[in-house]
Design brief:
The protein is mostly helical. It is built from 23 helices and seven strands. It is globular, with a radius of gyration of 32 Å. About 2% of the residues have low confidence.
């Protein structure tokens, strides 16, 4: 007997949309992928009118629900800037005052803002980013709840055009080498301390070459918090001898025996940023499984990391390969980081557990991914420590003085490394583009833009034009004679540099010289083996003045002419003569430079 079944209703029932006529509240709560609260923001504490605070909170909550924590923080900072404008403007009393005229007043207010540290106006990019965050909040409200806005609000298009015209300063190759040397010194010191800590924790008795009191302190501190540095209060409650801790450098120093600390993370981060030429924000988020074996070379390791903005629809992984046989290669540094952060990984949240740069927060007493602000602070302390160490070195060995580290930020490293790659490749922007992993060459050009790059580009254009002319006109009959004539023409009417009497050293009038080639006596006052220069401030001032004049001339003289006439003198001054002067004379010599007579302009 057949059983009649009821008919199944397969129609899709449309759920009624949830429409909020009014925003919920001013507390904006963001959660991670596991539902844990990552950050709370209260727009009601900004001093905005209540309805404006509710509107911005609702837009902030929904528009940035899936954004990264850094993006959320940037939006919050922009809302704080808007709140300062509202307080100073005194014309925004409710949502009804959010008009196009208000946007114009806000733009004028942004133009008047100056940075607290440098007392300089905000850059065009900073102003554009702050205005963009407010525009995103208003646009979200226009799309989802247009009834909340009183009328049409328009934002002008490209308020600050050509905002990337001002290039960032670049670190020279010598500066990058000095920074890397300081990083490797601090990394060796931190790794040696961590290795000593592992040896101490692996044994229970005294260790040769290590203070017994230090061994007892490291073991006592490790027992308090299961191998992670405890807070000072927790250490005191657990019976740790704080007086002994202070004698051995304090809790922060002793934490280096257990795991990576905030003091040493900067050296690892800077070294990896220079070697990988990576974006600082993306490199900070690098994961622990970032190393992949090279498919062809057993000695090479590929380091991979993600960059959120790399690619529109398909994200491109950032990767570089390194030879592991080099002592300070990036894979070896990452292995050390993995070992030093292993005690911290188990304490981190599920969102940060797979990150490489983990540190213990002293304020919250939790293990987290190092914050951008914490990293910037650690970098400044790293520069201060390194320069203090270099000052001690220069005082002990003035004949081998080391240059001090410049004051730099992590954001300058990528562009500086890109510029050095561009110079080393002879002006090949495609090779530099491959290093930076850019989809377009014009993006790479923003990183390498500067005076040195323009000089290389002019030389490249001149060389290519010369090749084109040869291809069209044909090779000249006597190429060697033409080269000699070109050299003579380049050197004609040369200014007498530093007491040289020969006005045209390529003319071949000196005994033993050949026309078209540099006279072998040219520059003799600098190259002469019998040259005697007293080591005092006055003579050092003259050498520094000559060096500066040559460097100024290099920027305005034709590169081929400068290389023919003046480059050997500059190399001798910087490479042979100046290093013989002690570092202690630099201050007095620079002071005396202003009293010296002006040198003739080189032509």
């Amino acid at each position: 007997m057949a059983v009649r079944r009821e008919r199944i209703d397969r129609r899709l029932a449309a759920a009624a949309p949830i429409v909020l006529d009014q925003p919920a509240d001013t507390i904006v709560v963001f959660r991670d992928g596991w539902g844990d609260v990552t950050k709370r923001y209260n727009t009601g504490a900004l001093g905005l009118p209540s309805d404006v605070a509710l509107l911005l909170a609702d837009a902030f909550r929904h528009h940035h629900a899936a954004s990264s924590r850094d993006t959320q923080r940037h939006c919050w900072m922009a809302l704080r800037a808007f709140a300062r404008f509202v307080a100073e403007d005194s014309q925004v009393l409710s949502v009804a005052d959010l008009t196009t005229a208000m946007v114009g007043r806000y733009i004028a207010w942004l133009d008047r803002q100056v940075a607290g540290q440098t007392n300089q106006p905000w850059s065009k990019s900073s102003r554009a980013n702050v205005l963009m965050q407010l525009r995103q909040m208003i646009d979200w409200t226009k799309r989802r709840h247009p009834s909340r806005l009183p009328g049409r609000i328009d934002f002008p298009w490209r308020v600050w055009p050509n905002r990337n015209a001002d290039t960032r300063p670049r670190l020279a190759g010598e500066d990058l080498k000095a920074i890397l040397r300081a990083c490797y010194e601090e990394i060796d010191e931190a790794w040696e301390r961590f290795e000593a800590g592992r040896t101490i924790l692996a044994t229970s008795g005294p260790i040769d070459g290590v203070d017994p009191e230090l061994c007892d302190l490291v073991r006592a501190i490790a027992r308090v918090n299961d191998g992670v540095l405890p807070s000072r209060t927790c250490a005191i409650r657990s019976g740790v001898n704080i007086s002994a801790v202070n004698r051995h450098g304090g809790l922060r120093h002793l934490g280096g025996y257990l795991h990576l600390t905030g003091e040493t993370v900067a050296a690892f981060f800077i070294a990896l940023a220079i070697q990988t030429a990576g974006n600082p924000d993306a490199l900070r988020l690098i994961t622990r499984n970032c190393q992949v074996a090279h498919p062809l070379d057993e000695h090479r390791i590929i380091v991979e990391w993600a960059k959120p903005r790399a690619g529109a629809k398909v994200k491109r992984a950032q990767r570089r390969s390194f030879d592991r046989r080099r002592r300070y290669a990036a894979p070896n540094l990452i292995d050390k980081l993995l070992a030093m952060t292993a005690p911290l990984a188990g304490r981190a949240s599920r969102q940060d557990r797979d990150r490489l740069f983990l540190v213990k927060s002293e304020k919250k007493n939790t293990v987290t991914l190092i914050a951008d602000g914490t990293l910037s602070h650690a970098l400044k302390l790293f520069i201060k420590r390194s320069n203090a160490r270099i000052a001690i070195w220069n005082k002990a060995a003035p004949e081998r003085a080391r240059p001090f580290l410049p004051d730099f930020a992590a954001v300058l490293l990528r562009g500086s490394v890109a510029t050095e790659y561009y110079k080393a490749s002879g002006g090949d922007i495609v090779a530099t583009q491959d290093v930076l992993n850019h989809a377009r060459a014009d993006t790479t050009e923003l990183y390498i833009r500067g005076p040195q790059t323009r000089r290389i580009q002019r030389e490249t254009i001149a060389r290519l034009q010369e090749l084109m002319l040869v291809w069209i006109v044909g090779a000249k009959a006597n190429t060697e004679d033409q080269v000699q004539r070109d050299c003579i023409a380049l050197a004609s009417d040369a200014t007498v540099p530093f007491s040289h009497d020969c006005l045209n050293p390529a003319e071949g009038i000196a005994p033993g010289s050949t026309a078209g080639r540099m006279c072998r006596h040219f520059g003799g006052c600098l190259r002469c083996p019998g040259l005697v220069i007293p080591i005092d401030a006055e003579h050092m001032a003259r050498v520094l003045q000559a060096k500066e004049e040559l460097e100024r001339a290099r920027e305005r003289i034709d590169p081929r002419r400068f290389e023919l006439l003046y480059a050997p003198s500059l190399r001798i001054l910087t490479g042979d003569i100046l290093p013989d002067f002690p570092q202690s004379l630099h201050t007095e010599a620079e002071r005396r430079m202003s009293t010296l007579p002006t040198l003739p302009a080189l032509e």
